[in-house]
Amino acid sequence: MLLSAIFGALIVAVILWEAFETVVLPRRVARRFRLTRLVYRGTWGPWKAVAAIFRRPKARETFLSFYGPLSLLILFAVWAACIITGFALLYYSSSTQDSTHPTFETCLYLSGTTMFTLGLGDVIPHTWSERFLAVVESGLGFGFLALILSYLPVIYQAFSRREVNIVLLDARAGSPPTAAELLRRHAGTAGAEPLQRLLHDWEHSSADILESHVSYPVVSYFRSQHTNESWLAALTAILDVCSLLLSCAENVSLRQPRLTFAMCRHTVVDLAQVFGETPPAHPTDRLPAPDFERLRAAVTEAGFVMRNDQASRDKLGQLRAMYEPYLEALAGYLHMEVPPWILASEITDNWRTSAWGRISGLTLTGRAGPDDHAD
């Protein structure tokens, strides 16, 4: 009986501490062994494996989008089941040793009805220790419900803030967002100030993503509304633009690109650490020589002055090595697509499409040119 009491108290204490770290504590928990981590590691892998069966990208993305909200319900159910089991062991150990000693199944039933405050009365505590446990567990049941109700709005507010910034990139960087398209749409004298302002906004947006996704990693599993958009793709495009400006661009103020690059890189590195994803030693080359030439030609045609010397290319390579391995690690774990630097062919933006057709060959200003989307 003593072992049952110790084991039951340990289960309840561990779950309460898990709930505190997950919901209340606003910082990353470095401890490797956590029940919450085991739940997500044990469910996300099989979920991704099932998603790989889907042939159509839209169907696969829809299936993956269910995981984020559903994982919260799974986590709450695991917590509740563990608390009920822990208190059942405490009830079982505190019962009197006579012919009426309840079975563990009966104690489990008593614990469940007390946890959810059903008050059926068909099984009642007899000893003072049982009555004390019943009061504690019923109060814990109310607290558990309040914890869930307070946790969900925080999660969805963080998700909503993130998605607003992602949607705003649609007309500014394409769908999916790419460095080439973002620079093309902010070329010329009219686009210089909006480009600096966009990078300034994303310095703050990436800081918000870092704070919210480190404090509540479950938000990382929530998918965007469109299959060709994601928070990881948005960060990739912003990092690509900053690294290209810092290494190759002339006549461009580099203060804001430098600050935004540092903040976005901080975000992807810390999130890779949160999920325990080691960056690959030899990441995939996202910008082979032919694509770099197309990128440079497209940006130059849009009006940017780009250096093409070896020193600039070496600096670009060094900057890419600071974030691309972490992007690849996160993309592999979260099953998200990392956009290229420049698209192989033109793709219609999401804002131009609807269920009844798509708009093509029409600009917002009624004329074609690099300044069409330059605010």
Helix content: 55-70%
Which stretches are poorly predicted, pLDDT < 50 over at least 5 residues?
365-375
Largest sheet: 2 strands, antiparallel
In one word, what is the shape? elongated
Q: Helix count?
A: 14
SSE sequence, one letter per element: HHHHHHHHHHEHHEHHEE
What Rg is obtained from the alpha carbons, in whole angstroms? 27 Å
Which structural class fits the helix and strand makeup?
A: mainly alpha
Tell how many strands the DSSP assignment holds. Answer: 4
Share of residues in strands = under 5%
Q: If you average the pLDDT, what whole number results? A: 87
C-alpha termini separation: 72 Å
The strand line-up of the biggest sheet is 1-2
How many distinct folded domains?
Answer: 2
Search tags:
two-stranded antiparallel ribbon, Helix Hairpins, 4 strands, 14 helices, 375 residues, mainly alpha, two-stranded antiparallel sheet
In short:
This protein is mainly α and 375 residues long. The protein contains 14 helices and 4 strands.
